[in-house]
Design a protein that fits this description.
alpha/beta; Rossmann fold; 5-stranded parallel beta sheet; about 35% helix; elongated
């Protein structure tokens, strides 16, 4: 079989979907002919960080609705060796917060790109901001006494 198309794979949690998620998918789409996107299951995410705010079924539905992916699949492991071989992936894209983690995929002939999230929006930053705002509202609410009940 002769391969005629470049297959790109990217993956993520895609919690609280935001502009940087969209930019990474657009970037990945531009690197090849077919884009496969893995959305991390709730179980996988909980194995290395706090649970996502948005449940898996909703996160995968959002990613499926976007125009960039050709295929969207559940991602159940952070070890991408099997998926690279099974799907004949040529290019792997992940956020630069994972820099170095997936260099081993190059041993299988896969080009690895770390998308520069930089100082942009992230789900973690959004969660922190929501929590800070909540604590400020709570602090102000706690200063205010209950009205007399008669």
């Amino acid at each position: 079989m002769i391969k005629e198309q470049i297959i790109v794979y990217t993956s993520g949690t895609f919690d609280m979907f935001h502009r940087n998620h969209l930019k990474m998918l657009q970037y990945a789409r531009g690197l090849g002919d077919k884009l496969i996107v893995g959305v991390s299951t709730d179980e996988l995410v909980c194995s290395y960080k706090a649970p996502p705010i948005v449940p898996f079924e909703e996160r995968i539905a959002v990613v499926e609705a976007i125009k960039y992916p050709d295929v969207v699949i559940p991602q159940r492991s952070l070890d991408h060796e099997q998926i690279i071989k099974k799907l004949h992936i040529d290019v792997f894209v992940v956020g630069d917060d994972w820099t170095g983690k997936y260099d081993y995929l190059e041993e299988f002939g896969v080009k690895v790109f770390y998308f520069p999230y930089g100082a942009g929006v992230s789900s973690t930053k959004l969660k922190e901001k929501i929590y800070q705002n909540y604590m400020e509202i709570k602090k102000n609410a706690d200063k205010h006494g209950n009205p007399d009940i008669r």
